[in-house]
Amino acid sequence: MSKPWQITRRHFLRGAGGVMLSLPMLEIMGGEKKNAQPPIRFLTIFQPNGVYPKAWNVEGEGRDYKFSRILQPLESLREDFTLLSNIDNTEAGNHVSMTAAFLTGKNIFNKGSFKSVDQIIADKIGKDTLFPSLVLGTEPPRQGRSNNAPISWANTVCWRAPSQRLSPEINPRVAFDRMFRHVMDPVTAKKRGTIRKSVLDLAKDDLQILQKKASRLDKAKLDEYYTSLRAVEQGIEKSQNPPKRDWVSPMKPEYIRPAAGIPRDRSQHLKLMMDLMVLAFWTDTTRVGTLMAAHGFSRQNFSFIDGIQGDHHGMSHHKEKEKSVEEYTKVSVWYASQVAYLLKRMKEIDDGAGSMLDNSLVLYGSGMKDGNGHIKKNLPLLVAGKAGGKLKPGAHLKLAESTPLSNLLVSVQQTFGIESNSINGVGSGTINSLL
Questions:
Q1: pTM, to two decimals
Q2: Of 355, 26, 80, which Cα lies nearest the Cα of 9?
Q3: For the domain with range 42-196+263-434, which CATH number is right: 3.90.870.10, 3.40.50.720, 3.40.720.10, 3.40.630.30?
Q4: Strand ranges, E, within 176-250
Q5: What is the pLDDT of residues 95-121, one digit of tens each?
Q6: Concatenated DSSP letters for 409-430?
């Protein structure tokens, strides 16, 4: 029997403007087992255009391997992930098809792709959350064709059905409002995105009532949660309304107005989307997330990194030229440092039984090994987290040569209780050493 001061696990803070604010797990949530286990989440972080192999590949196997240049930003997280070698994207052959196959294990065909593993898992574990899955990104879709396939198919790695791809939301404010203002329609979310008032301010009356009920531990959790939520709001606000600078160049810059609501700073944009994904997991708004670090055929310019002039797709076709290889590698190091930020953030959040990272399976990598020649063998991949104790990270697993990507996807779905030995009709087994 619940006490008057208890609230349910699915309790929302409500406020003006349609706010329905999810909450982290608290002691005062009644109707729960005292030792209830936190949910297991699945997160995919997709990086486009591959890597320079010699800068990614590590020396050694097992737990005593030596980190490579690209993976250096992740070294402090050594015990939190497993590095995988010799997995091939056997079903695909160029940027578009390799992107589409990343979570499906299957090459695209004339009507599209196949159901991706994130959506298979969402069908299994996403029924009790506001969003069965969440797809975020940083780059708008591109048009045109590549080897007779629409480049727009590389906008995402998430597919519900052959003709139904799930394109990422790239506007931080719209994503935030959809999650925390409980606005399901993207058009309405964009309109409400013009409302500047904080969701915490809009829900302040409910917040005050909850604070009076909260235990000492709950108050500490709520303070941490509110601080993070406010920080994301302020980050979005700052990205769209930059403060005045204390120095202005004597040369007049050429102003090219970016798309509405998209941060001008690429690092800031990706960090905001990562923070939003963490908040979505933290509040149990979703348990399945996909983060497209960029379009699968990305031509993003990385001139904000010292020593880089070209676009990512161009430098991936480096032809072993020293300058292009160096630029290509610097971009990969930058991506690895962003992933390190996200994993560290997940590791900092206490789930009650381990950290958020402990209770997650995070798949990070690219659908191709090297953009120069569209190399599909030995993909750059790692799996982070413990999936609630089902995984034992901390090693470099050098698998049998030509292990199909579908085997990894089968292993991932089995971690979430999906016992099928194949995905989309492909797969020759599981990666037992991962489990």
A1: 0.79
A2: 26
A3: 3.40.720.10
A4: none
A5: 888 999 999 998 887 777 899 999 999
A6: HHHHHHHTT---S-BTTB----
